[in-house]
Amino acid sequence: MAWIQTNAREPVSTIMSRKLLSIAPTTTVAAARQHAAREAVEHLLVLEGDQLVGVVCRCDLERARPRTKVGTLVRKPLVSADAKATIGTAAELMRTKAVGCLPVLSGGLLLGVVTRSDMLRSGVAREALGGPCVGCGSQHGLSPGLTRDEVVFCSDCLECRGDVGEGD
Q1: CATH of domain 6-127
Q2: Structural domain boundaries of the chain?
Q3: What is the pTM of this model?
Q4: What is the tens place of the pLDDT at every residue in 82-115?
């Protein structure tokens, strides 16, 4: 992990945001879009009571119909980081799972969230986080990249090129 800066061994909890913006799984996509725009965030945590059930990003919301319930959009299984995980471990998880943020948990309790932007501000190299899409340059909706040098496409580009990886 030489491509991650020297703070790679610090706990991810040192760079996470404690400002948690959440919605219920029964919230409509239209309402979630408005909430994300009003708060100027890319990701919303989906909570059922005090239980974290998932995360939705603005690109998920933009692809869905306005009356869809956000609970149907969350990725299973939930991708999260333990508060004691290192920044380097969290960056690797974000890259391999192609996610733009990680809820940070301790014993199942939601403590915060770390985003791609938090990682970049802390000195993690952009390449360590995966992407951008080689087709359009987007950092959203990326396909998982299993190796650092793997070519990565976003879901929009994959839809346009259904033949990617088939016989190439």
Answers
A1: 3.10.580.10
A2: 6-127, 131-168
A3: 0.77
A4: 999 999 999 999 988 888 899 999 998 999 999 9
CB 129 within 8 A of CB 94: yes
pLDDT digits (tens, 9 = 90+) for 53-93: 999 999 889 989 999 999 999 988 999 999 999 999 999 99
Contact between 114 and 65 under an 8 Å Cβ cutoff? The reply is no
